[in-house]
Amino acid sequence: MGEHVEQKGSLVEPARLRFDFSHYESISSGQLSQIESLVNENIRSNHDVSVQIMDLDKAKESGAEALFGEKYDDQVRTIRMGEFSFELCGGTHVKRTGDIGYFKIVSESAIAAGIRRIEALTGEAAVAYSEQQSALIQSLAGMLNSSQDKLAERIQSMHSVNRRQQKQIQGLQSQLASGGTGQTVHEIGDTKLVVVRMDDSDVKSMRMAVDQWRNRLGRGIAVVGGIAEGKATFIAGASKDLTGEISASALISHIASKVGGKGGGRSDMAQGGGPDTDKLEDALNGVQSWVQDNLSQTL
After folding, report:
1. Is the pTM of this model over 0.85?
2. Which residues lie closer than 8 Å to 86 by C-beta, 6 or more apart?
């Protein structure tokens, strides 16, 4: 981390510690992992912890670390842990580094300009914390239908989808506020038809969009289609006064067949989909002609 790092304070208790030091930026997760690994490596090495009272000048000449600006007596207490650590210290310590058991960093933060703080647990408290974190990761992986090693990737994917959906929602809200639709409403006789593409949307959002369009159109048909998680999905809704003339279920069956799938439902609301996502746009483009043909058959 650099020669500029100096200890600025500390707290040492049997199960936890706090270490303050000078540094100009946050410590990366990679650096924190390296610090943990280095400390635990020396814990496992089980170094002897030797205590020696020395003249201050001799201790400094021998390489003992001292706090900058700290006032010391002529005689000082030194602590040596193998070749890993040699410093001036008045605290009490274990007899061997292995007695610490395990070291786990739980937080890193700024406490003042240019001053960072690391907080950590040791021994059984560190083990218990690690077990809790492991259980949490396992639980999250289960909720997100992901393996633990793919959890970060899964969360990033969901975050990206959520951001795109938020942009879609904002766009739709803006359209509604301005009184516009942002979509072409086709008029087939006295029936209105709108076809909307909504990629990266869940079924619930697509169904809500269909309901909103049906309410807006009056006598009409709304079709929403999109690609999400590698699959094409469609939902169609028809106003109640059209259900005797055209079936949303039949319309969805027709559209889904174009993407290698199937679908069905009620005459006023139906859902379907298929795996051939590259054919989704053609399927949506064919909706108008299908509706025209089927409405004309009822006249």
Report:
1. no
2. 62, 63, 64, 65, 78, 79, 80
